[in-house]
Amino acid sequence: MGFIAIRFGASGAFVANPDCMVANLLSYMKRMCNEHDPKVFLDLADEDGMLINLNDYHPKKRASSILSTKTMYIPIKLERYADGSLKPYVPLVPDMNQENPDFMRRLAVQYERRTGKTIRGYGRLQSLPEDAKLGKNVNTPPTKRNTSQGNKGTKGTNRAGKSR
Q1: CB 93 within 8 A of CB 9
Q2: DSSP strand E in 9-134: where?
Q3: Which residues, in sequence order, are CB contacts of 77 under 8 Å at separation 6+?
Q4: 49, 115, 117, 164: which sits with the fewest CB atoms below 10 Å from its CB?
Q5: What is the pLDDT, as a whole number, of residue 163?
């Protein structure tokens, strides 16, 4: 069993045990980050700026199956405008734009993909490698599609042998 570290504020951090339900971890994070507004949601991003999207998982899913132990995460504030559209992501670590501009650019790219809205003030988003924009690990080779041995030489046919 391991723990995760959640960086909060200018120089603080707290630890959390991810061996719990996602709903419990999110509730604990809200309490530790002094966020009491029920309209505000929290999420986590890794130190590279990749959003974990904890709110997209089933609340009873084990957080340990999503998060890596012995890792530092940054809490991200998620709010909505009155019309229901998502506001830009806000890290709960002050001066993140000056401290780690790439972190903010990656968050901005993810926000733009989710909402279709552009965020100004985070520098040129095109300066990020394409793999980072997609949340892919640059060092991981692309996977090949698994094909069965029986389909060799049957290009353009399906399993039943019929043409596509």
Answers
A1: yes
A2: 12-16, 41-46, 72-78, 90-91
A3: 35, 40, 41, 42, 89, 90, 91, 92
A4: 164
A5: 52
